[in-house]
Every structure is written in C-alpha cells, then in structure tokens.
C-alpha cells in the first residue's frame, strides 16, 4: 500500500482533534476565567531510502534521502494569558489581575480557579456557585498548605447577614460594617500559584487540580509573593478570541479536506495498478 495513504489518515486524525479543541474554545467564549486550548503537531518517524555519505575520492558528500510517514499530535496546551476584565458592579464578583488562582475547598480536595463569581450560603460563608468554600486566611502574607478540615492558617470567609458596606480590597481583605457601625474584618481571600501553571489539569466547573507536572502550590494573600491583585466588581472573561478561533476552524477544515484528497488520489493510483492486468 502507498505510504501517502497512511500519511493522509494521520492528518485526518490530527485535524479532527484540532477541530475538537477549537469547538470547545468557541463553546466557552463566555465562560468566566476560561483559558483557551491550543493543539500542536509533530512529524512521525521518516523512513530512510538513502543514507548520507561524506566527501572523498574526488566527489562531494550526499545528503540522506528520507520519506516522512505522516504527523501526530504533540501537545494540547492551555494558553494562560490574562482575559479581559468585565465590570459587573457586584461586590462579590472578584477578578485576579496578574498571577494566581483562587483556592476552593471541594468534596474531592482543594481545587483552583480563575473565575471569581462568589456568593454567600445560609451561614454567611463565601462560596462558589456550586456551594464550595472559598479559602481565606486571617493574616496577610505567605501561608502554609491548605488542609481539610481547614487549618494551617486557612479559614472560610464568613460575612454576617446584617453586614453593611461590604468591600473587598486589592489585597483580598474582606471588610464590612456591623449594625453598631464598627468596621469589621472577615479575613483575606488567599491565592495560590504554581511552578508550572500550565501543568494543572482541568477538572470541570471552571476549576483545576494539581498534577505531577504542576508542582506544589505556593499560597499567600494577593499582591504578595508575586501574586496578582484582586479587583472587586469585575470578572475575568475567557481569553478566547473568536476571530482567531474561526481562522483556526478554517485551517482545520482545509487541512482535513487536503488530507482527504491525498487519500482519494492514493486510491486512484491503487485502482490504476489493479487495472493494469486488464
């Protein structure tokens, strides 16, 4: 069989994967804190049909002769550049300007998120839309590792139902005024960063989990240890660029189409070979 047919098949598989990633990016164009995916390819092993030779005997050297055997998927990256901030005017909508992830306590352990649309539960604890606790701390600065139940300097952020003039500072400090008119502190929203944020695994619900290649988190309050600052009343939007995604969709479509032509042409050649006996 022709090598070109198998090369075309490998190309079809790759562009199918590329289209899957582009489709997921477009589906999440309005997902808060979403980081778009990107597919890269690499060539497969090349078959040598002629080896290289050095110069000598009055003649120069010759380059190797190789025929490629197709392509394969190299990586599926998460592009982690900052998304645009959208003003909402809602105090509990919080965006991170810079590096870092919110720390969320779930039933499956600590998860990490860039989306900051927070709420309060019946007891006044700061939670995500799924009811998971947002991890905070009593003091500013570096913190230990979060544990379950919360410890090591970590806590939940509790805002009483009768709190007034609620505000969240750039350093993550949550303050409010009690019924007696006294300014109270509910604690600091804490952030975490990783040696390799690109190594985090997406675990759904806008959250990430630690992987073997992400490293262990370094936790601190915002604006410390290289972490970004918080902006209350705004949300970080997806970093998906629709014009770029539609361009990538066209590239995937044309690449898929070109590889089908390779298979069709290879099939026509094989048909001619079969018909030689006639």
UniProtKB/TrEMBL annotation:
Keyword Transferase: no
PROSITE patterns, per the entry: FLAGELLA_BB_ROD
GO BP, one annotated term: bacterial-type flagellum-dependent swarming motility
Record domain Flagellar hook protein FlgE/F/G-like D1: where: 95-176
Protein keywords: Bacterial flagellum
InterPro entries noted in UniProt: Flag_bb_rod_N, Flagellar_basal_body_rod_CS, Flagellar_FlgE/F/G, Flg_bb/hook_C_dom, FlgE/F/G-like, FlgF, LlgE_F_G-like_D1
Lineage: Bacteria, Bacillati, Bacillota, Bacilli, Bacillales
Domain Flagellar basal body rod protein N-terminal: 5-35
NCBIfam families assigned to the protein according to its UniProt record, in alphabetical order: FlgEFG_subfam (TIGR03506), flgF (TIGR02490), PRK12636.1 (NF009278)
Segments of this protein annotated with the region Disordered: 203-232
Flagellar basal-body/hook protein C-terminal domain boundaries: 232-276
Family statement: Belongs to the flagella basal body rod proteins family.
Name of this chain's protein: Flagellar basal body protein
The keyword Metal-binding is annotated on this UniProt entry: no
Predominant location: other
GO cellular component assignments: bacterial-type flagellum basal body, rod; bacterial-type flagellum hook; cytosol
